Amino acid sequence: DPVSGAPHPVISAMNRLGYDAANLGNHEFNFGLPALRTAVEQADFPVLSANTLTRKGSMPGEDETLLPPSTIVTRAFTDAAGETRTLNIGLIGLLPPQITLWDRFHLGGEVTARDMVETATHHVPDLRAQGADIVILLAHTGIDTGAAGPDMENAALTLARLAGADAIVAGHRPAPVRHGVWPPDGGEADHLGGTFSGTPAVLPGYRGSHLGQIDLDLTHDADGWTVTGHRARLHPVTNDSTPAHPDIAETVHHSHAATLARMRAPLGHSARAIHSYLSLYRADLPVRLVAEAKRRAVRDALTGTALDGVPVLAATAPFNTGGRAGPRAYTDIPAGDLTLRNAADLQPFPNSLCALRFTGAEVKDWLERAASCFHRVTPGLPDQPLWNHAFPGHAADTIAGLTYRIDLSEPPLYDDSGLPLPGPAGPGRIRDLAHDGMPVSPGDTFIVAVNNYRAFGGGPYPVLPENRLVHSSRTSVRDLLADFFRAGGHHDLAPEPPWRFLPLPDTSVLIWSGPGLRDHPGDIAAHDLTDLGLSPEGFHCLRMPLDTVPCESAM
């Protein structure tokens, strides 16, 4: 903690809790290797990562890893007969190899990565040879129901099929229950039974929303220990039912106070509330504010260069849209003073700014990927589900600087991994795509401001050739947004929203939001939404007609 001089508050809390081990995820690299190394040195427990490498050998056994790939934790247990038994628990850390793309500015030249499945295939038997009685994979990776392939980002199902892996604690793309229904899983992920590919597993929620627990029944014979049964479950964690533990609160008190003081720094004033309750279903203010901050920063950076004058757009995703994080995970900033905390709420990840050169055809394809987040809607029918919950909310980019409409009556072109859907391709969903009132042609040229995660293939979006990158910055988008507010840029946001749904007569869809939307009756009335009550998980269910689709207004 640079303010108080104490260890990193998260590490301090983990030390106090007595963690046995931890595994790196992709966001641990967002602030660079020096910050990561400092935090790891402060940990009283091993931090693992078997496929994050400083040198890649010809096979996993020859790799040099950034951190220890695995560890063995020895614990004593009392068996059913009352005897004390010693158990050696092997732990292996894994994460998506895409870290080298997403954080290339931090890792380039210093860190590379190996495929998770290839890595685990080597380390599981190696750990058993070192004396591990059981092996648990700590795998920062989610579920992908498509065909297995090299360098998968979400490889939990494939990892769980490895011989010798007794359990898996997954993550990265969590999918706890939504509206009483588990997401599609291809039949291999039994969330209620707690197995992936037949292996005991948990996939805890987003930002600490759930605590995963796996209990293993073990039998010992001449060949060693064998897992003969298990129970796995997720414990929901909420602020109401789970108050802060006084020891932890005291441990991080100074860091917490310093953080609050910084986050309350004033940035400006907003005459209207800014909320994300409808950000999945309209060209919403939170997305447009971040997009405009990015556009202006890129335009400024290109002034006086050969690209000065090329139209600058901005592709921006909605954040804090409920989903896997639960019904309270929405932005809701009241009218009044804006602070750095509000900027962090609107841009929660420490991504940096990049800009890419796009053709008009590539811009349309990008938007088709975003529009694939919605289910196909049959004109003339009521109460059809709109959002496809296989997609996270942050997959639905808006491109500011254009105008376009989305035709929900057409089938989507892509799945949640960005792969073309099977069957003959339809015409797509993007209609009336225009820039400055003129139709966008396939051969047109644009500069598109994005964050570094999107620039290098994050989400269902393609990786463009290296020579398309025309600008990159170490400055975080969050800091650019704070500067945008300080300069008053939010006061002159363009009144025309980028997109809206194509009207479909006599048609309605069902949408989900947070119950806090009820505190914004003007938005409910503007979209003629009908309140259908709360789901068992606390989400607000609403009916939205598609006969006419109103705009989101400027500030």
Structural features, described:
The protein has 555 residues and is α+β, with helices and mostly antiparallel strands. 21% of the residues lie in helices and 27% in strands. The chain contains 14 helices and 31 strands. The strands form nine sheets. The chain has a seven-stranded mixed β-sheet. It has a five-stranded mixed β-sheet with strand order 22-17-26-20-27. The chain has a four-stranded mixed β-sheet with strand order 21-29-31-30, with no helix packed on it. A hairpin with a 5-residue loop joins strand 5 (70-78) and strand 6 (84-94). Helix 9 packs across helix 13 and helix 10 (340-346) crosses helix 13 (477-486). The radius of gyration is 24 Å and the shape is globular. Residues 176-184 have low confidence and may be disordered.
What percent of the residues sit in helical stretches (DSSP H or I)? Answer: 10-25%
- Poorly predicted regions: 176-184
Quote the beta fraction: 25-35%
Specify the number of helices: 14
Largest sheet: 7 strands, mixed
Structural class call reads alpha+beta
Adjacency order of strands in the biggest sheet = 5-6-8-9-12-11-10
Radius of gyration: 24 Å
> What is the count of β-strands?
31
Average pLDDT taken over every residue: 91
> For this entry, what is the oligomeric state of its chains?
single chain
Our measurement of the CA-to-CA distance between the termini, rounded to an integer number of angstroms, reads 37 Å
Shape: globular
